[in-house]
Structures are given as structure tokens and as C-alpha cells.
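Its record is set out here:
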Amino acid sequence: MSHYSIKDIEQLSGIKAHTLRIWEQRYQFILPKRTDTNIRYYDNDDLKLVLNIALLKDNGHKISKIARMSHEQMRNEVLNLTEKNLRYPDQINTLILAMVDLDEDRFEKIMATNILKLGFESTMINVVYPFLSKIGILWQTGAINPAQEHFITNLIRQKLIVAIDGQYVNTKDDTNKYLLYLPEGELHEITLLFICYLIKARQQKVVYFGQNLPFADLEAIYTIHRPSYILTIITTSPSASEVQKYVDRLSTTFPDSQILLSGYQIIGQDVTTSDNAHVFTRIEHFISFVEENRLEQTA
């Protein structure tokens, strides 16, 4: 059973802690537990209740009316709303509910509905990425357990692999080639897979080597493929104390390629880059980069 602080609940639901406390006092439908040292905490059932309340409130239901609803009535009304309504915050909250309940059927329904109406790329950018950002914060604080995180990321990974397989690229020999990999010890692959999809969807070549690639293997691969671009995402490995050395090594070892960088250990850190390296802070910036280079090549 996961334990959430009131700050965790606020970050996941968008409901301010002050408002949650008022609801506790006035309506008594959210009653936190307390530790032996009298620190309040919330469990999975509390999180699901707050998420349902937030969804109903954001779609015009008065809080006094919600307070009179049973948990089953709330759940049914939320399901009806999320099938009809494609507001991004609502879809993100329903993904959180699917994760907490380990509910694969609900996840599949949410994804299928959004992909049908928005397209795969828009669903990833506007629904899945904000969702992953929310759970990433909780993962770092230990508010969600490994089973929940593995459950949802593996389902998303499966969707990405299917989408990538659907992008057949019959490219010319002079098409830009991107080599994608994660450094040794780095296992967070979701963004790298999505980038692979984005590149292939724009009819560019991808050489994909995935997780945990030693630098010596990267050098060997480079001599075979000679890519125009080498892209990596550094989330946890190398560590903050080693990342500058790693970035410098990439630039000096592969001076004839553009080094494309992103990830928690890169963005907003005091990492300096050489002329042949570029940092992406947002996925939209990378999309623009690929499209601009593709247009230059065909001009």
C-alpha cells in the first residue's frame, strides 16, 4: 500500500492542500490516516477519491453534490466523462487512476480513445508525457511503488514499439542518420523510444541501440554507421559528478557528428557543451530540429 503526503496528493490531483483540508473539515469524505508520530498520510483509496473529485469538479459538478455521491457513483460518472471528454488534464488523471489500480483495460481504453481522436504523436506529447512527469516526481520521493511504475511504463513501452514498427522508412542513401542510445547504467528508455518514432515518422534513418550501452561499444558502432547525429538522454547515469566529463568525451570522440543531449542530468544543470553538441529541453524543440534538417536536405 502506497503512502502519499498531502503535497503528493496536491501534485497529482491539482487540488491545493488548503482546499483539501477544507473539504476534510466541511464534508469529511477525505479522512487522512496518521502515523504513530501523528503525521498525516493518504493511501491509494484516498488518492483515487481525490482524483475522481477533481475530475468531477473540473467538469462542472458542485462539490456539495459530489459529497453526497457514493464512491461507485463517482467512479461511473468519471468513466462517462473521460469517454466523452478529451481535456488533457482529465485524461492524465484517468491514467493515474489506471496506474494506481494496475488496471490494464482502463489504460488501453484511454490510449485507444486518445490515439483515435488526437493521433499517436499528440497523445504522447499532451497526455502521456505530462502524466510521466507527474509520476516521475512521486517516484523520486518514493510515493509510488515499483510495481505501479513498472506496470504503467511497460504498457507505454509496448505502445511505442508497435508505433515504431508501423513506420516503414524507405530512405535514400543521403538521408540523415540518427544513432540513438542510452549510456551504460541508464535504463529509462521511454523518451528514447518516442524519439525513435518521431524520427522514423519523418522518414529519417535511425540506428537504435537502446539501454545501457558501454562507450567502447558506441565507438565500435560509430565506425560502422558514421551517423550525422548521436542522440542520448542522461537521466541517472552518468552521475552529476561525472556527466560533464562524459559530455566532453562524446564531443571529442565524435567531432564529425552532432551530439544531441537531453535528460535530468543535462537540462538545467551546469553542463557546458562544445560547438558540435546541442541540448534539447523539450520534445517539441527536437521535433522542430528534425523537421528543419529534413527540409534542408530536400531543398
Notes: The beta strands are 33-34, 40-41, 177-181, 205-208, 229-233, 258-262, 277-279.
